[in-house]
């Protein structure tokens, strides 16, 4: 628990690999997962005489992220050589951006309430974004395959990265968690990265210090590295904040240093003392001209941006009447939100009116239960799921019309995964799952069940109300097809009430 008299000050540096076919300065493939040292070429290996050629798609991805986070776009942006020892960069320096990032001065908004399920009334907090700049990734050092050697995989050398630096506006590990979650959601929503922290597509360094509450100056900060999940970012910050508070309470100085997070031991350990910024020795890259983005290009990219997750969540709540939790779940991934809206649109074409909010809620229930469960348990995506939005709308319509029961609808959904051609109605009919809602068919069966069980009828009339479930089960067993359980209940209740009156 954080000490009540102290306040943490947190800033995050997020590195995100961009999804491009080629590397930042060469045509070599940038795909993840190839055998070691197979996605390399003379440029990424730093061979003498090679010259970089900038990947335009990487620039466009960076601009999309900048526009989505309300950044200013630089009229001219320059690359620099960052001379700092990287054992896994063969050319001896990293090509990055220093004093002229592509994007700067933006912000992200996160939920500031105590709970994670936001509503329209949940307070929001704006986290400033200092800069988003473009750079190349380094290779990967592998330490656990040899007791005496470090192995190097250069596949990652030259893969395009954006580095997104926040202002020190975060005041708790939970806020940092929400901010990083929002960044991950946004890069996936824009289609510029898969945001997979386990594979290194999204990496985060955290800078943190503590100060007495009410103080405006910053304390001595430490930098946390080796954070391979959003949850570990939160845990590492919790540990480090408490460590710094304890040190201050004991009168010990907090040293500026870089720390590694040991996820197994759930503690930090020293990696190195932190060099000052000038030790990186940036110099303009003579082989790369400035990036000049015409205003027309910026506006074209801005107009092509999709509706952002927060705006879509708000619309789902205000226009469709969905609860905050539902809207949050449905907008976590853009493909899932698209699936939901397409299914709802298809359902509206069938119903041609009625209670649209109730229909939206019913579709949301199916997506959050059957669809999400299937996506989590299989390799399907919303785009490849055999139960397409149109087919899901067919099933929801059957449920709304009370033609299938709740359990019957689940069974139909499972059958639709296997039978990709037939409609929900046909599958329900062929598998005897269409509910019988004809009172005339149910009444004689209900009457015979009561006649065959006089002792149970007497017990029910004497106050044993639980026997109604027995009678319902008997009717369901005796009928061909799938009778509507609610109608069976109503018919039995009426007949039992009639017998009570005549007794």
In terms of per-residue confidence, which ranges show pLDDT below 50 for 5 or more consecutive residues?
Answer: none
Give the % helix.
Answer: 40-55%
What structural class do helix, strand and pairing data support?
alpha+beta
Shape: elongated
Strand content: 15-25%
Q: What is the makeup of the main sheet?
A: 9 strands, mixed
The chain-level mean pLDDT equals 90
Taking all Cα atoms into account, the compactness measure Rg is: 30 Å
Enumerate the strands of the largest sheet in spatial order, edge to edge or round the barrel.
2-6-7-10-1-11-12-13-14
Question: Which helices and strands, and how do they pair?
Answer:
Blueprint: E1 6-17, H1 56-68, E2 72-73, E3 76-77, E4 80-82, E5 94-96, E6 103-111, E7 124-136, E8 140-142, E9 151-153, E10 160-166, H2 173-190, E11 202-212, E12 222-227, H3 230-249, E13 257-262, E14 267-273, E15 282-284, E16 291-292, H4 295-304, H5 309-320, H6 324-330, H7 334-351, H8 356-377, H9 389-400, H10 406-418, H11 424-430, E17 435-436, H12 439-452, H13 454-461, H14 467-478, E18 482-483, H15 485-502
Helix pairs in contact: 2-3, 5-6, 7-8, 7-9, 8-9, 9-10, 12-14, 12-15, 14-15
What report would you give on this structure?
The chain contains 15 helices and 18 strands. The protein is α+β, with helices and mostly antiparallel strands. It has helices at 56-68, 173-190, 230-249, 295-304, 309-320, 324-330, 334-351, 356-377, 389-400, 406-418, 424-430, 439-452, 454-461, 467-478, 485-502; strands at 6-17, 72-73, 76-77, 80-82, 94-96, 103-111, 124-136, 140-142, 151-153, 160-166, 202-212, 222-227, 257-262, 267-273, 282-284, 291-292, 435-436, 482-483. Helix content is 41%, strand content 19%. The mean pLDDT is 90. Helix 2 runs antiparallel to helix 3.
């Amino acid at each position: 628990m954080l000490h009540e008299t102290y306040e943490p000050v947190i800033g995050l540096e997020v590195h995100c690999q961009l999804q491009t076919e080629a590397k930042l300065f060469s045509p070599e493939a940038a795909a993840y997962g190839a055998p070691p040292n197979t996605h390399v070429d003379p440029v990424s290996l730093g061979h003498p005489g090679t010259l970089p050629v900038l990947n335009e798609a990487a620039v466009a991805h960076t601009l999309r992220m900048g526009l989505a986070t309300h950044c200013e776009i630089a009229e001219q942006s320059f690359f620099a050589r960052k001379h700092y020892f990287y054992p896994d960069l063969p050319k001896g320096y990293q090509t990055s951006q220093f004093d002229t990032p592509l994007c700067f001065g933006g912000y992200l908004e996160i939920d500031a309430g105590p709970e994670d399920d936001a509503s329209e009334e949940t307070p929001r907090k704006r986290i400033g974004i200092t800069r988003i700049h473009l750079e190349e990734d380094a290779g990967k050092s592998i330490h656990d395959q040899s007791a005496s050697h470090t192995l190097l995989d250069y596949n990652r050398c030259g893969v395009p990265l954006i580095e997104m630096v926040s202002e020190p506006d975060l005041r708790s590990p939970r806020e940092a968690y929400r901010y990083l979650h929002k960044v991950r959601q946004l890069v996936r929503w824009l289609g510029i990265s898969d945001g997979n922290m386990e594979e290194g597509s999204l990496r985060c360094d955290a800078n943190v210090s503590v100060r007495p509450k009410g103080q405006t100056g910053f304390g001595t900060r430490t930098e946390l590295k080796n954070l391979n999940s959003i949850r570990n970012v939160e845990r590492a910050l919790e540990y480090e904040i408490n460590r710094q508070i304890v040190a201050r309470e004991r009168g010990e100085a907090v040293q500026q240093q870089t720390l590694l997070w040991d996820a197994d031991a759930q503690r930090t350990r020293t990696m190195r003392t932190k060099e000052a910024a000038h030790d990186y020795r940036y110099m303009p890259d003579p082989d790369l001209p400035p990036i000049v983005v015409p205003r027309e290009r910026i506006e074209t990219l801005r107009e092509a941006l999709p509706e952002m997750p927060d705006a879509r969540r708000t619309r789902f709540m205000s226009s469709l009447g969905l609860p905050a939790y539902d809207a949050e779940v449905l907008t976590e991934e853009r493909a899932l939100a698209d699936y939901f809206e397409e299914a709802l649109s298809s359902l509206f074409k069938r119903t041609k009116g009625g209670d649209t909010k109730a229909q939206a809620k019913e579709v949301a229930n199916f997506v959050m239960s059957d669809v999400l469960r299937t996506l989590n348990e299989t390799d399907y995506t919303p785009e490849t799921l055999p139960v397409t939005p149109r087919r899901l709308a067919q099933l929801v319509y059957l449920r709304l019309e009370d033609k299938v029961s709740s359990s019957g609808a689940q069974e139909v959904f499972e059958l639709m995964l296997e039978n990709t051609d037939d409609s929900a109605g046909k599958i329900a009919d062929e598998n005897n799952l269409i509910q019988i809602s004809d009172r005339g068919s149910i009444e004689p069966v209900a009457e015979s069940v009561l006649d065959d069980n006089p002792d149970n009828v007497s017990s029910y009339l004497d106050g044993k109300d639980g026997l109604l479930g027995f009678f319902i089960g008997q009717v369901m067993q005796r009928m061909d097809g799938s009778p509507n359980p609610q109608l069976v209940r109503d018919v039995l209740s009426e007949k039992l009430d009639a017998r009570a009156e005549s007794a």
